[in-house]
Amino acid sequence: MTSNMKTSKRSNINNVPENVPENKDKKVCLVTVDMGYGHQRAAFPLRFLDRKGEMLLANNYSGMAEKDLLIWNQGRRPYEFISRAKHLPVVGDVLFWGMDQLQKIKDFYPRHESSRPSWQLLASMAVIKKKQWGKDLIDKLDKENLPLLTTFFSVAYMAEEFNYRNDIYLVVCDADVSRAWAAEHPERSKIKYLVPTKRVYERLQLYGVAAKNIYYTGFPLPQENTGGEHLDILRYELAARLRNLDPQNFYLSKYKKTVQEQLGDYPVPDKPTHPLTITFAVGGAGAQREMGVALVKSMRHNLGRGEMRINLIAGIHNDVRDYFIKEIDKLKLSDCLNKSIFILHEAKRENYFKEFNVLLRTTDILWTKPSELSFYVALGIPIIITEPLGSQEVFNRKWLIGIGAALDQENIRYANEWLPDWLNSGWLAEAAMAGFFEAPKYGTYNIQKVINGELKEVRKPDTIFQY
Q: For the chain, what is the domain count?
């Protein structure tokens, strides 16, 4: 495999790799689901492997069977409602607790074999078997006789239940997983797992998955933010980011040699190339939107003077966009819109993901709950963590804190006081480098290698690929 980026040439920094597969790439049927952003965000960078260059939605495709659509909606709508209601006193917490118990991840220690299927898994398999849920989709895809690459476990189980002929690959989207991510009878399953962390590699084996079916690849990151296998774009933008994250040179003065060794031909500039930029990402169900407004309110003077930019991510939700606009107007900051305050809203998810990746190129701090975006610390973008929503996000937070790539937010009303302290201390610059060092950066390319059969044997986490 060759990269579309040339190395060590600053003039090539903006030549974003095209999502076009080389001739030797094996084509797949790439399937994801329209449930929040997580599963689609994991699939989006892998479209170049799909035989049509797209990602098919298992719960929303042309010619979909009505009975299947009904089953999907019965599962999705309650999740979105409860996620939005999480902020409601008492009632919201109770509803969310109940939903979270169904997909709870157990403590890893003490280690013990736990291959017994969970209630969530048994319920899903019962619907697949009794109502033939997903058979229409699998029968259509099976005619193409291509490997199936999916980011949602139910799709993998459908394929196995309905005798999908070719290989089945499942991309895991969190730093740890519940029992629902392993097949009902893992010892007999042919599903191959593409996992983002060592913990998932170990956890799946405790669930009974054979080690030969687990590849520690890392999470798939967008090529437009890495710049190919040589990470040209990533290194160039990390250099600019470090200048904003360490204005007093507190971190850089101590680790200048190490930092420059990693950045290669892209030195940290003497002066900022853009204002300090924060991207506040609202969850896929529109959760935590109020926190984004609280951040803007706390930083209103910095925004008014043009000293800072805040990107508020509304995604595809009209109501979240309208809420941001209304609240910004109340704060008398409407003049800052599209100047120091930018609201990202797109009608289509594919356009949203594309524009979000563009914004990340000048983002210095990602402010978000520990969702699938946790893995974006590999781009050298530190995360300020809001409250985790759900068991999987609690474990994502553990991973982020463990590798030193994120910090828990303080009281957001006083962010104008504590955030400058964090910057002047170099903490966020240190977190940026920790993410770059410790989080897997080559997930997209590693998955490509697995699909292409370029690995003749399964690698263990301590020996797999370059990071």
A: 2
